[in-house]
Hints:
CATH topology of chain A: Rossmann fold
Radius of gyration of chain B: 22 Å
Oligomer: heterodimer
Structural class of chain A: alpha/beta
Order of helices and strands of chain A: EEEHEEHEEHHEHEHEHEEHH
Shape of chain B: globular
Structural class of chain B: alpha/beta
Largest interface: A-B, 28 and 22 residues
Largest sheet of chain A: 6 strands, mixed
Number of helices of chain B: 10
Bound molecules: adenosine-5'-diphosphate, magnesium ion
Helix content of chain B: 10-25%
Distance between the termini of chain B: 45 Å
CATH superfamily of chain A: P-loop containing nucleotide triphosphate hydrolases
Helix content of chain A: 25-40%
Amino acid sequence: MLEIKNLHVSIEEDGTEILKGLNLKVGSGEVHAIMGPNGSGKSTLASVLAGKDGYEVTNGTVAFCGDDLLELAADERAREGLFLAFQYPIELPGVSMSNFLKQAVQSVREHQGKEALTSGALLQMMKEKAALVHLDPALKSRSVNEGFSGGEKKRNEIFQLAMLEPKFAILDETDSGLDIDALRIVADGVNHLRSPERSFLLITHYQRLLDYIVPDFVHVLMNGRIVMTGGKELALELEEKGYDWIKDETTQLA
Amino acid sequence: MPSGVEMSMELKEQSRSGEDVFIERFEDLIGPNTNGSESEWTLNRRNAIQVFAQNGFPNKKSESYKYTPVTKWLQSQLKNGMHTAAGSSVQSGNLKNEALPTPLLDESEVRGEPSSLENMKGLHVHATNGLIRGSLSEALPTGLIICSFKQALVDHPKLLSEYLTKAVVLERDPFAALASAFAEDGILIFVPAGLEVEKAIVIHHDALFSNSLIQARLLVVAEEGTKVNVIEHFPFLDAGSSFENRVAEVFAGKGARVDHVLVMERNDQTLFVNSLFVHQDANSFFRTNTVTLGGGLVRHNLNFLPDAEECETHLHGLYVAKGTAHVDNHTLVDHAKPNCFSNEIFKGIVTNQAVGVFNGKVLVRQDAQKTNAYQSSKCIVLDRGARTYAKPELEIYADDVKCSHGATTGELDEDALFYLRARGIHPDAAKLMLLEAFAKDIIGLIDFDEVRNYLYQRLHGLLTVTK
Lengths: 254, 467
Ligand SMILES: Nc1ncnc2c1ncn2[C@@H]1O[C@H](COP(=O)(O)OP(=O)(O)O)[C@@H](O)[C@H]1O
Ligand SMILES: [Mg+2]
């Protein structure tokens, strides 16, 4: 589904290199977790995959379902079925949730050759998907993320994921800032959305999330590279020992 | 041919200054004061032309027109043969009584398409060159007067002498002085004490003589304890390069509530100077929502004098300047008395080579203790070729007041755009959503569904083609 080869990414503004030859392959229906210390480049990877401006890919390739992902604009990627749940969801005063979802869902559906939903069907879908993450349906008449609590914002991201039914979803620290109940709700939502046609990339700082969403693979991202890959046990090991031992190991290897 | 056009002058000579043209024109119109027994109104007009003659049009040194070259525009229009006396021939009368004959129409009169504001619930008034045309859509509530000044002079002479020109500060602006000198006629709205006018009074300024100078005038007198809504629409007209120099005066009596909406959508060759002077008595409420979606050069001079305690003043404004349009909102809130509240919110969207100017002055005089005065101006610039200038001015002489102001100018928020695009929304649609959301803050403050919906539609159309 997604194959990243030797990806080098710099900040456009000052040329600082953040990703330094990253390789990652995610197959259909797989759930991969990426862990790593703060500042190691996890959000940068998510942003570059989603097509955010301000980054320069200096080397490497990203194939998404066989296409060159990097050739596509951000909105095209989304319509092709790539989804990013933001670490910091943006507030959009004056843009109502319902209009936002309508525009998004219809754009994506139109691109994928699906027929447009009637407003009744769209409403019904919103109701069902909101229930999935225990989001108050009254939120749909509010402005996007405006005045939402931290937890509501995160659940709203998963709600949008559910509405857009992407092939590939990146969750950037969706767990951080959530209490245990909210974490469970989010995890249940994600688990519900797992399917053989849908892959996930879970970016997280803590192992905790992976108790609830059990990944197929765990990768460690440090200094702009995947330095270690393992099964779900790796997350536990990281939780116990931190990241320093990996540093030692990789420097020894180098 | 109606006399308005006969009297018009071809002004192709370049030797005379713009001022002289108007001063001579005035003398032709009024003649010298021979017997000294002129009406107060005429004397006022003479005074106004004197003030205009002393001050002249704004020049390069005029601070308040620094960013807005009205004089240059005006001169080029004069050179191109603008008619300077149009309008005076249009018949008008007191709408209270009966249907009036349709006024003489000149072939150069241009009328706008009926817009959806025509269909809203309200008391509809149609105006050619700022003067009432035809009859009112329906009977008026008892006591409410909507008529021409000329009619008022016959039926209610005291009203005019008590109020007309009394709110205008001639020295403040040469255009207001000029318009006051040429104020031959206009529209009077009088709301007698205690009357709450349920339906909005909707004035459709939907016909103009083309390529003309029009000095339209509106006087709204809302006596004690009244409620009235006045909606003015200046729709798009294919009327060439007209210059509308209009003055509106509003008197809000004790405890009165006056709500005003102005929607400006003229063509891109129009020069439009709108001077609003509002005088407020104790416990009164006044609100204007000045929405500019069209015009070539538009200058709003909005002046507020809450002249007694416990007044509430709201100034809301929205403008979209496209192409080479130039939109300038120039406001003054003059807090003279204690315990008043004013809130000013302006928002603008400027694109292409357009220019947006905001100047907001809040003056809190020494007596005006416990004043709460707030002001905010926000502008989105969509194009590198577009320019904006914002100048908030707070001048405070009282010590126990709460005042704040803020002015921001910037591009559309990149993070917000990215968020929308990351959900599959096309960039143009995403921009449109954000711009509409931005404008909604102001339009949402208008009380009438029909007006809000009309404006949302217009905005959608305007912004959809805006790149
Ligand atoms: N747009 C940007 N401009 C400047 N520096 C950035 C930008 N994005 C990321 N960085 C820097 O890149 C590094 C990696 O950041 P990030 O990808 O957010 O890390 P993580 O998500 O793993 O905590 C950090 O040092 C951060 O300061
Ligand atoms: Mg991060």
